[in-house]
Amino acid sequence: MNNKVLIVGTGGIGAYFGGRLAQSGMDVSVVCRSNYKQVKKDGFAIKSIAGDFSFKPDGVYRSCSEYPETADYLIVATKVLPEIDVVNIIKDAVKAETMIVLIQNGIEIEQEVAAAFPNNELVSSIAYIGVFQLEHGEIEHQAAGRLKMGVYQGGSSEKMDLLSAHFNKVDVECEVVKNIEFFRWEKLVWNTPYNPVSVLGGGVDTKVISETKTLENLCAELMKEVCAVAKSRGIVLAEDIILKNLQYTRKFPPYKTSMLLDFENKRPLEVEAIVGNVVRIARKEKIAVPNLESIYALLSSVDIKNRV
Amino acid sequence: MNNKVLIVGTGGIGAYFGGRLAQSGMDVSVVCRSNYKQVKKDGFAIKSIAGDFSFKPDGVYRSCSEYPETADYLIVATKVLPEIDVVNIIKDAVKAETMIVLIQNGIEIEQEVAAAFPNNELVSSIAYIGVFQLEHGEIEHQAAGRLKMGVYQGGSSEKMDLLSAHFNKVDVECEVVKNIEFFRWEKLVWNTPYNPVSVLGGGVDTKVISETKTLENLCAELMKEVCAVAKSRGIVLAEDIILKNLQYTRKFPPYKTSMLLDFENKRPLEVEAIVGNVVRIARKEKIAVPNLESIYALLSSVDIKNRV
């Protein structure tokens, strides 16, 4: 059947894409933490640029151990944070036939799951979307809404293709790609500058960054460094990626990055997935990344202070 | 007589050193802005590690034009900010015999005053002190309390020596030096890292910086860059200055930098005097200062956001 989906992590991303899969006819349940009560009672209300909709999950659980069925797809849409132990959180719902699908930011975020569940199919996916949870169960979808997915470390999978087809059926563009790692780096070239700079610059949106020459220059320098590190991993990004990112971002309406929203709401920041992992590769490969290093040091400190 | 002193800028620095000169027997008046009313009424109450004291200025004025006498010494102790036009502020009190004494932070901060008053003696002075204004007229002196001063662009001056003697008479160590520019750079090697990092790191004191390896490393990198820029100006700092600064700072009690205090109190930050001027020299001399550049971009943005 391949019809049963369990979503772990029901912030904006998990709720939105889970809701779409429910619309496509799949049987979608969710594991909730802070928003459990509200979602159990009323499900999700999703305000979307593509038309508002509601999403009543088939089951709402506090943990994977409560899920009474066997998930065909276990979708992980949590933030990537050192304190979120994904392996431990999902292990009770990972059965032999379960395909694990990570819809998460950053690079080199799949290893632990891959190592813990070596016999399960693992799909790595990137969301291109502006979506967040306003209040428990209230989701605001503001921009885009696409996915790219690929089998972790390459290859193909009919089961993944089926999931992708479900998304496309409900007008969520979901592209299956051969080399998802390439697209993770490509997305990182945007995320690594704009997210930290929006926070460290004192809480500035993309419009302010684009209109402040020194901040935009800093973003460009950070992009250069990310590209250099990517290259050491065999990922060759287009030569004009930096210019294109700058130009593309200049056209945004004033947009708060997800990291700035997390900062303003005193939530943990995805420092490691978006900056730390790049810096660690750079150090290992002896690539000089002074701007990344300084951003990393400052952002780590801000993240700690912001949680207090 | 050389006995008349007018202080312009009566935050912590101006009030403290002005009060000391009054104790030494000089006739000290002040020009106040925001704290005018309070100081006019009650003068300054100074809580000091060297013993509390009060300072009732001989005259309290709203502007230099109100000062009815001729100042032998006009001491400028304002912040160094683009919007503070020192030349314009002091011009009505600068007479032929007036020695102008700048007690201010940063480098290359004397040019405008030197150019505007080419026939006046100009003294450049650095304060080594932890002092700030708690409330209007209430000064808190927490650490150190020394001065170095020298004739701008070298040379000696009996009149300056007399001022220095007045300070020393009341146990304010005031050293007359030949090359004040050297000491400005030396102090900058501390100020340029610790001030911005304390703000950009999310509001961290020196103890947190010293105990956070990545932040302390960033400070060390910034110091290296400042030393390289200093060198291009013929200022050769001791080779162990970085290590000594780190070690010295590790021994501080948790100390909030003056920039962090300004930030927390929504006051303008001395971005240009402490970072911008160094960056501009580096650009001119084509010295790569990636860490200074990124700090400069972020701090400028934070400063703007913080004023709103």
Account of the 3D structure:
The structure is a homodimer of 308-residue chains. Chain A has two domains: 175 residues, Rossmann fold; 126 residues, N-(1-d-carboxylethyl)-l-norvaline Dehydrogenase, domain 2 (Orthogonal Bundle). Chain A contains twelve helices and ten strands. In chain A, strands 1, 2, 3, 4, 5, 6, 7, 8, 9 and 10 form a ten-stranded mixed sheet that branches. Chain A is globular, with a radius of gyration of 19 Å. At the A-B interface, helix 8 and helix 12 of A face helix 8 and helix 12 of B.
Contiguous helical run count of chain A: 12
* Second rung of CATH, namely the architecture of the largest domain in chain A: 3-Layer(aba) Sandwich
Q: Enter the CATH topology name of the largest domain in chain A.
A: Rossmann fold
CATH superfamily of the largest domain in chain A: NAD(P)-binding Rossmann-like Domain
| Greatest interface and its participating residue counts | A-B, 28 and 28 residues
Largest β-sheet summary of chain A: 10 strands, mixed
Low-confidence blocks of residues of chain A: none
How would you describe this structure in keywords?
homodimer; 308 residues; alpha/beta; Rossmann fold; N-(1-d-carboxylethyl)-l-norvaline Dehydrogenase, domain 2; 2 domains; 10-stranded mixed sheet; 12 helices; 20% strand
